[in-house]
Amino acid sequence: MLHRVKDPSPEQRHAAEILLGRPVSEEAAVIIKSLDPAGIIPSRLSHDQRIEALKSSVQRLAGPAISGHEEEAAVNEAMRSVRPNYRPTD
Q: What is the model's pTM?
């Protein structure tokens, strides 16, 4: 269900702000979706394994950033892997 923030009643807007945990502008749109429990796939990891996976992800993301040249080379390599005739435009 998609709502523009300016359309619902003040009570509905307030409820959306409570759910989002922040104010929303009148230009914003809010999407509300309900999931059946059967549609939610339970994790196969234990609680401790999920904590370790989260820590590992945070460490990887906090690692050294790559340079713009390395980033461009990685993107070009990925593009060539799916489109062998790909050539950068610049």
A: 0.35
